[in-house]
Structures are given as C-alpha cells and as structure tokens.
Design brief:
The chain is 27% helix and 26% strand. By secondary structure, the protein is of the alpha+beta class. It has a domain of 118 residues: Sandwich (Immunoglobulin-like). A hairpin with a 2-residue loop joins strand 9 and strand 10. The longest helix is centred in the first third of the chain and has 37 residues. The radius of gyration is 62 Å and the shape is rod-shaped.
Amino acid sequence: MVNQGKQQSSARSSASAKGAARGSSAAGTPTNRRPPSPAVYRRRRLVALIALVVVLALLVAGVMAVSRALASKSSPQAVSTPAASATTTPVISPSASPTPSPSASPVCDLNLMSVSAKTDKGSYGADEKPVLTMTVTNGGAAPCQVNVGTSQMEYLVMSGSDRIFSSKDCQTGAVDLIKTIQPGKSETANFSWQRNRTVEGCGVVNAKPGGGGAYYTFEAHLGNKTSPKAVFQLN
C-alpha cells in the first residue's frame, strides 16, 4: 500500500515537471516572424522618393515666389505706351539744334541775277531752225526765288534796228513759275525759233527773214533784266 502511494506521487510529480518545462519553454522562446518581401521594400522606397520630390518642389516654388516679390519691390513697373500715329508731331530734344527752314520769300538782290543768251549754232542752213537759249544765274551768296515763267520771259530777234521776232507777240496762256536758284547755280530755258516774223498783237505777216548769210541778234529778257546780244547767221 505504501509503495502504491509513492508511485502515484512520483507520477504526478513527473507530469507536473513536464508541464512546467513546456510552459517555461513556450514563455522563454519568441515566435519566429517572416522578413518583408523585396516588393514591400521597393514600395517603401518609392513612397519615400515621391515624398522627397514633393518636398523639393515646394521648396523651389517658395524660393521663386520670394524672389519675384523682392524683384517687384526693387524695380519700377514698366508702363506700356501706345504707339504714336503717323500724324503725331515729333518733339525736339532740348539738346537738338533745329535747322531753320528757308523763308518762303528769300530776300534777293536782283542786281546779282544775270541773264545770258546764246544759240545752239553760229550759222544755220536754209532748213535749220535756231534754238534760242536763255540762262538765269544767281551770282549772290544766298538762295533766291525768281519768276522764270513765260509771263516774264521774252525771246527777241533783231536784224540791226529791224524787229524780226518776239515770243510775246503771239503768246497765249502766259504763266508764272517760281524757282529757287542756289548761289552760283542757273536755270535754263530753250526756244525753237521757226524763222518767222511777228508783230505786236500777232498780226499777219507775210514776209519772212531773209537768208543769204544775213546776221541776226538774239536778246533774252527776264522781267527788267536783259542779256547781252548773241549773234548768229541765217543762210
């Protein structure tokens, strides 16, 4: 009887010892976990990279905004001005020295104006028409306005004291023509004489200038200015 009691007690003690051993083993040993897969690492790195890019973009935008604000405060604003029209009068700069415009009627010393006469040839055949040339020259030191229109011109042909031809005898529609002649410059006008006779009032004249080697003179008149005579021969 005593042995049986000891055996049962020993058996219970052994079972208790095994249970305690299992309990201590379960409490002392941590549970083994699986490491994250490579895909998880890649996703984590991608998220971190995106976050970094967003942060950098925000920083750059902030710096640019601050720079623009400082620049707008330090520099004046440009004001747009409409383009000037073609009819706008230009403004002369105070430093510019404007060139005075010439007077509409410059003062002329008519005594310095000269009139000359010449023909294109010295001698003409029976069928040739003399070309009479009047030249007006400004001998002064300043530009001068001169009326060189047909209202002032006269081409006069004489044979001794015989008045042969005048361009004014049959002239119609005489006009004024104002020319500005520069110092030392000239205006020239040509007249082709048809070897005909005229009288004042443009009456009919049947006679014609004679040929045969007769000499004639040509005078050019411009207003009250008269040229020296030019001599030519009609054959």
